[in-house]
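Q: Start with the shorter request: fold the first protein.
A: Done. Sequence, then structure:
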Amino acid sequence: MKFSIYFAAVALVHVRMAGAFVSHNSACLSPTKTSIFSEPSDTSGDTFTAPSGSAFEELESCKADLVQMCTQSEKAPLDQIQNLVAELEMLGEQVGIGQASSNSGLISGEWELLYSPEDVTRSSPFFWAFRRAFPDESDQIFGITDSIPAPVKEVGPALQHIDLEVSNDGRSASGKFVSRVKVATLGGAATSIMTTRASIVGIEGLDGIRLRIESTKPEESTVLKKLGPLGEFLNENAPPFPSGDALERAAAGSSEVVMRTTFCDEGLRISRNEDRYSEPFVWRRKGFSSGGDAFEI
């Protein structure tokens, strides 16, 4: 079987049957981790000396409007999100908040997804890289998986953990990036956490971080947990799929993607797939960097 067909099938299975895959209880998670099933974090109480003036008040009002629009029960149209994001970025530039996002230091931490322009799974950079590796097949595959209705398939919530270290001269960067998306199938009878791990291998200008995909794995499968000790053993020991190497075999260079972050402050982040720049993702902070994968779903 041709590799492209095989890898496309792998991506399809990742989304449709994630609950039946091998999972993993991440031993490196902090004992103080916070469940994503709790109420979204409120960063309004964070210690922060705000600049005065009407421009800052407009910025805060715009942020509140954006969060409200992203969290309403009915998903907001993309153009409305785009307009508010553009206003937020403009106000941030006027006030001097949220800019130079790739090396400001504020991007490190735990983030929860508030808005995705597509299916929530597309917040994972694995799917950005998959599009680069299979430009002709990806939209068809995504269309099939996205059309599966709830409750047969439910996706979310989604979290990202970022640890970024920038050199003193601001010309290079390193670190790690972890994306975790909950996928439930069969009315919630089977669930798993689709986990993609990537390395931060560089910065691109003021707002870009270059990521290299390393692995993808469905973790914490409820199907395996029902198998008792055997399932727990598989949860803890089954290796992840080397998706970065597989992407490179499909198309050289496809395992690397650039995430552009056009606004980032103590509580809110706007990031974009460089290849689909007009489609912003909105993230809200759950915590600052703790040096480990300090979150769970």
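Q: Next, the second protein, separately.
A: Sequence, then structure:
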Amino acid sequence: MRAGKLDRTISIETLTQTVDEYGGVVDAWAPMATLRAQIIEASTDEFQRAYGAGGETAIVFRTRYLDGVTLDARVMYGGEAHNIISIKEIGRRRGLELRVRRLGD
């Protein structure tokens, strides 16, 4: 994986539980790591949904390997949160390919 192709910055966040000022437990997103990444594919697919036509933005990021990334995590890119749809390991812990979908799509 060539460093020159990793021209984007993404942040991987995990869901954690914290205690608020009233002593209640609340879910919050905490940063796990900030990584350099390459966009392999970015597409907007339009399709029919039950309530009408809609669009879905999917992006595939390629980045260096990071242990502990699961489908429960999310990717922050361009100020927007993206759900991780699939994770593919490249080589033997050489890198990761993350397929994500923008939240709300």
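Q: Describe the second briefly.
A: Residues 71 and 84 are 5 Å apart (CA to CA). The radius of gyration is 16 Å.
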